[in-house]
What we know:
Layout (H helix, E strand, L loop, with lengths): L1 H78 L5 H15 L3 E6 L4 E6 L4 E2 L2 H9 L4 E7 L2 E9 L10 E9 H8 L9 E6 L4 E4 L8 H8 E3 L4 H13 L4 E9 L4 E11 L5 E8 L1 H27 L1 H60 L4 H33 L7 E4 H19 L2 E7 L5 E4 L1 H18 L5 E10 L6 E10 L6 H4 L12 H4 L7 H11 L3 E7 L3 E12 L13 E5 L3 H13 L3 E5 L2 H13 L6 E5 L7 H12 L5 E5 L3 H10 L4 E4 L4 H9 L25 E5 L3 H13 L3 E5 L2 H10 L7 E4 L8 H9 L4 H5 L2 E5 L4 H9 L4 E4 L4 H12 L1
Parallel strand pairs: 14-16, 20-21, 20-22, 22-23, 23-24, 25-26, 25-27, 27-28, 28-29
Antiparallel strand pairs: 1-2, 1-6, 3-4, 4-5, 5-6, 7-8, 7-12, 9-10, 10-11, 11-12, 13-15, 15-19, 16-17, 17-19, 18-19
Amino acid sequence: xxxRINRVIIGGxxxxxxxxxxxxxxxxxxxxxxxxxxxxxxxxxxxxxxANAETSNFNSIADIxxxxxxxVIHELDAVGPDIKPSQVKDIIVEAAxxxxxxxxxxxxxxxxxxxxxxxxxxxxGNEEFLIECLHNxxxxxxxxxxxxxxxxxxxxxxxxxxxDGDQSIGVLYCRDISQFIEKLQLDDPESLxxxxxxxxxxxxxxxxxxxxxxxxxxxxxxHAEPVEGTAEEQVKLLKEAIANNESWSMExxxxxxxxxxxxRRSVRADYLPGSDWYLISILPYGVLDETIIGMNxxxxxxxxxxxxxxxxxxLSVVLLYMNLSRQQIKELEAARQAADEANKAKxxxxxxxxxxxxTPMNAIIGMTAIAENHIDDKERVKDCLKKINLSGxxxxxxxxxxxxxxxIESGKMTLNPDVLSLKQVMETMCxxxxxxxxxxxxxxxxxxxxxxxxxxxxxxxxxxxxLLNFLSNAMKFTxxxxxxxxxxxxxxxxxxxxxxxxxIKVQDSGIGMSEEFQKKLFTSFEREDSQRVHKTQGTGLGLxxxxxxVDAMGGTIDVESxxxxxxxxxxxxxxxxAEETPDDxxxxxxxxxxxxxxxxxxxxxxxxxxxxxxxxxxxxxxxxAVKKVIEAHENNxxxxxxxxxYLMDGLNGVQxxxxxxxxxxxxxxxxxxxxxxxxxxxxxxxxxxxxxFISKPLFKSTLxxxxxxxxxxxxAVVEDKEETKSEFSLKGIRILLPEDNDxxxxxxxxxxxxxxxxxxxxxxxxIALEKFEKSEVGYYxxxxxxxxxxxxxxxxxxxxxxxxERRDARNIPIIALTADAFSDDATKCLQxxxxxxxxxxxxxxxxxxxxEKYLG
Length: 856
């Protein structure tokens, strides 16, 4: 019996061992296959990545070389169609010397080469391809020969007279091919990847080692054993891919008895744009195979140990298997967490973008609603429109920055010309820069003269971008009390009567620039190396983008600057005149007095008023103006209206008006002229009896409409405002409004107060908490909570309010009013104790309905 039991136990053990051996052998084989498959995928992905990097590197080198060629072509074209062969040679030689080119040549329609500089270019690699590309007005790169010396040739189309009487079809720049190989790192000994560059017919352009076969196709036939298909089939697929400029890849076993090579490889072919070349990237599996073998050995050792352990008991086998399973699950969990973190980062980016975009949108929509409710209140509507304009420009700048980053880097920035009002462009620009100029305590003025056409065809967004880039720099680098001037004038264009040449100057009295820095002024990320500049924020990209835009418009930028004496940017653009309605802006021969201490403004205003049909007089000081007005009155020749500049030496515009009113009363309309914001001076201007305000720039239409309003009545007529009320009233309801943004707070306050509510604003969450805590129980009926605030955000403030030991802390409706508009944001608001979530821009009806829901 015992022997029988022993036989059963021994047989059972052998059965368990045999079963374990079979199971682990199968598992080991499966894991070997999976490992090899994963390694192949990793190798293919890595090879694709490095090939793309080399292709990108090739494109970068090509862009540099073509930029050099573009400079030469630009210089040649600038001479004009009557350029002589000697001039062609002189320009090319001068540029080639400066750019340290080995050789520079031109080629004619017959493929004949004429070397104009450096070593003699004897031949190019594919003459027919070169001629075909140049005829098609395409750039091309290929190899060339100068004696026994291999060259890399960069060619660009260009038709210029040659010394033999023929006409060229292209200009060729040559460099030593060894430098090109070095820059592409084709022979880097530390690289895991080998590279070969071939032509479409399979012949070699360059490689790290000399090729044995005549073509790469023959190399595949001779030494390659593809993993899938035959060598003939793979060569056919490669030729088809090359014919269609597509990528190709395969895995093969490479055998070469003479060189002692016998290994597995992954091979990939990628087209090099602008050439008839293909980059062959080869990844030997030597290191990877060693890794696979090492992994296989490790698994085999583990299998033997596992079988030995299983002979002592099945439990050990189960535990070992469970341990392996746990390790795999751990790796999968790590991969899942990495994916979750990537998704979270993406969500945070979108959330931030949503907040940044919705904040100015809230101002735009809110101010629009306020303006609609006060349509008869001209000043209120004007103030709303100004703030809408500023917020719109902020939003436009944000969007432009996002898009320009992509477009400029890819070379795809385009212009969208449309009918543009230069008056609106200049007024918008003034509205945007005024607040910062006021904050910096700088002097600002704008002078407009000799305007031939106010409406032209131009990309208004890009023109605004150019002006604001210049003005942004001027404001950054101009000290307190320094001046910033903008001047615009027009003259006939060389392009004909349909065009006008517009000049714009932006001049400041700032720190200026050195002559050395001016040479690289429009280079990306360049900033002058000085202590003052380092303290000023900026990327150094603004002027580069500006130069790109002006060049795309066909214009020019001239710069005059000296260190410590300021800078002047002068932009000249030829613009097509937009079709305008007949000019019927005429006024009676009114006697108008213009008062300004700037001679240029007096001159241009006088000329413009004469064009309108009036009889203007000018003077340069407030004292002189008072004297002239009194004398005219005593002679019974009163002025119809007076236009006075706000900032003048001696008596300013307000002081001058006060003296005139004291002497003559309110009979003569007086308008104040200024480049500053009307709201900053409105109170003191109204106190002295100023009737109107003219915001610079002084276009013809601006002066016409300001004076026209005095035609029927000599004083402003104040009309009763019609007030519109919503059906639901919040009369007597007290609302606490935590909001750090002034414009957003103003919008919400106006909306609520117009519906009868009493609004108490808190600048951040901490102040809101303090106000609520100090108030009597039941004092506030609801809280409209912003989320992103300094000191304490909306979530923290809500959580703190709900924890207060008072009855209304748990019951008061807290409504999130925020630009964070994603569903996750709304869920988070509820988790922190808020009642509901409303997204900015504010929907007035939705806000009132929500308050009615919780307060009704």
